[in-house]
Amino acid sequence: MLRSKILSRTGTVLDTFVKNIPLAKVSGAFLDEVDVKILIGYATYQGQTRQIARHVADHVVAAGHAVELLETSDADDIDLDRFVRVILAAPVHASEYPRALTDFVRDHVEQLNRMPTLFLSVSLSAAGHDSEDWRGLDRILEDFSSATGWCPGRTEQIAGAYRPHEYDVFRGFIMRRIIARKDPEAALNEDKEYTNWGALDQRVDFWLRS
Asked: Structural domains in the chain?
C-alpha cells in the first residue's frame, strides 16, 4: 500500500490512499489520473472523527480498494461521478452535524442518493445504552435528512471520544455532565476514547459486501 499526498486540479492537497500504484505514477499526479473508487469525506471538531475516517481509509485500502480521503470543507468542486461509493463521517454537537458536512451534502445530494453510501455518525451518546439517547440520535438523523434531502444507504452510530482539554468552558461543562452520567468511573479531567475499532471495521466490511 502507498500513502501519498496528491494535488487536485484546484491545488488542494489531499490525503490519498492508493494500492499497487508505482511511486513514479503517483508523485505529482492529478487525482483523475488515479483509479480512485471510494470517497471518504469527513467533518470534525476535536479530531476524533478525523481519526475515525483515517482508520476507515486504511481498513478499506487493506481490503483491496482505492480511496480518496478529504475534509468536506475542502470538497466544493469534487466530482462524485469519479467514485462508485461514498463514506461520510461527522460528529454530533448540540444535536447537529457540522455546517461543512451539511453544505457538502446539500451540494451533492442528487449524486449521493444515487450511490451506495455509508454515514458514520460520531457521538458520545453512541457509547452507552440509554434508550433516550439513542432516540435522540434517531431524531438528529431524521432532522438532518429532512434538511438536506439525503437518505444514507446505511447509517452507523459510532462512539467518539472525551477530550476535556480541547473544549471551551460551555462545551466542557456540558460534556462533563454527560460523562459523569454515562461513565461514573471516568476521570473528568482526562481524555478517554470510546471508539470500538474492531466493531467499526466489521460494520464497514458489512457495507462493502452489500
From this structure: 2-160+195-209 (3.40.50.360), 166-192 (no CATH)
